[in-house]
Amino acid sequence: MKITVVGTGYVGLVTGTCFAETGNDVTCVDIDVNKVNKLSSGQITIYEPGLEKLFERNLKEGRLHFTNNLEEGIREAAVIFLALPTPPGEDGSADLSYILGVADQLGKILKDYKVIVDKSTVPVGTADKVHAAIAKNATVEFDVVSNPEFLREGVAVEDFMKPDRVVIGTQSDRARKIMGDLYAPFVRQGNPVIYMDEKSAELTKYAANSFLATKISFMNEIAILCEKLGADVDMVRRGIGSDDRIGKRFLFPGIGYGGSCFPKDVQALVKSSQEARYDFRILEAVMDVNEKQKLFLIPKIEAYFGNNLKGKHFALWGLAFKPNTDDIREAPALYIIDALTAAGATVTAFDPEAMPNVKQVVGDKIKFAEHQYEALEGADALIIATEWSVFRTPDFDKIQSILKNKTIFDGRNLFEVPRMEELGFHYESVGRLA
Ligand code: UGA
Hints:
Blueprint: E1 2-6, H1 10-21, E2 25-29, H2 33-40, H3 51-60, E3 64-67, H4 70-74, E4 79-82, H5 97-109, E5 114-118, H6 126-135, E6 142-146, H7 156-161, E7 166-169, H8 173-183, E8 193-196, H9 198-229, H10 233-241, H11 262-275, H12 281-293, H13 297-304, E9 313-317, H14 332-342, E10 346-350, H15 355-362, E11 367-368, E12 381-384, H16 396-402, E13 407-410, H17 417-422, E14 426-428
Parallel strand pairs: 1-2, 1-4, 2-3, 4-5, 5-6, 7-8, 9-10, 9-12, 10-11, 12-13, 13-14
Helix pairs in contact: 1-3, 5-6, 9-11, 9-12, 11-12
The chain binds uridine-5'-diphosphate-glucuronic acid.
Uridine-5'-diphosphate-glucuronic acid (UGA) binds near residues 209 and 212.
């Protein structure tokens, strides 16, 4: 099938490349000339494990093309995916100007029937708005479908290739058939394509992310309670997770969720609820708990150093909001850096991928190390903010010999508490028995 993906950001590039991988002819359109030139010449513009190989292969085999020209890019396509940014506006609601701008142009240039698909996470009712924006100028038939993505950064290729489910929101039989054919190769393992109306599909995406964010904030509050009551959150997590109705996954407490999705989507759903004159109290609490959780380690660190961090120096392992990405949007590490430096402390950080991005944001505020152990030099304590695999089994002897104090504040519960005690560390983590 010939398809077009408008927008070559994270979602667009993964979508385009993975559809090419299953034999489709894919054209990706972007207004950024520089990006299109880079991509056309084989330079990938995002970091995502496994994507580069597929990108290079499909580009070489002629199934993946890039252009700045929307009219040329959509000419032969049966399906046009819109994978455009929906940044939060000042009031927290999603800004639809990119999507509606492209919809407006599409109306003017469509020459035959096409399926136009909202892939971006968009508020309920957006498919109707896109439909209206195209219909204003269109002279041919078309359908607008909502097909939200459920990709996780770091495992996006796997999530795309083997999805738990594919949600397709449309009331048109013609569009349903085309979308079903396009996704057939991805759901062979028995995972379902779930058909529904457009609005339900749009809400499914927000409900999924908000539910997962709720699980995390819930566990973060249980962890706080564990510390206050003398219980261990690892035990409680195992105890509740083995109940199928709760599930083992996404129950790990830590220093809060970050990234480009959960914070934005939870906020947008709260905003949509307010517009519908409904006060979504659980989600307001989820956001509030998460804001506080990002700074969960700070009072522990302050208490340990006698409530005076002036002149103290910290090693910080992990800057990305989660492992296997260089994404630092809403990353807890940035909040920790702000709090420590505001209290007069200095920081040397190490992250396998995210240092260049953090440098751009914080400039000279902190130092960066070439290596995880180099970050420890002269530090009064080590703080862990992201659970990269390379931090999971470090050389503890080396850590002890470099750190000034044998002290670790771990925001991701990477190590077993008894082991750390045995090794003689002062070790503080999230919600576990000391
Ligand atoms: C999330 C969803 O998981 C995807 O299904 C969705 O498609 C995507 O948002 C999106 O809307 O685009 P992502 O933001 O890449 O994906 O990251 P996750 O792996 O889901 O992690 C989100 C945050 O939750 C991270 O900060 C992580 O550290 C935190 N987390 C996750 C916990 O604190 N505890 C857990 O048990 C799991």
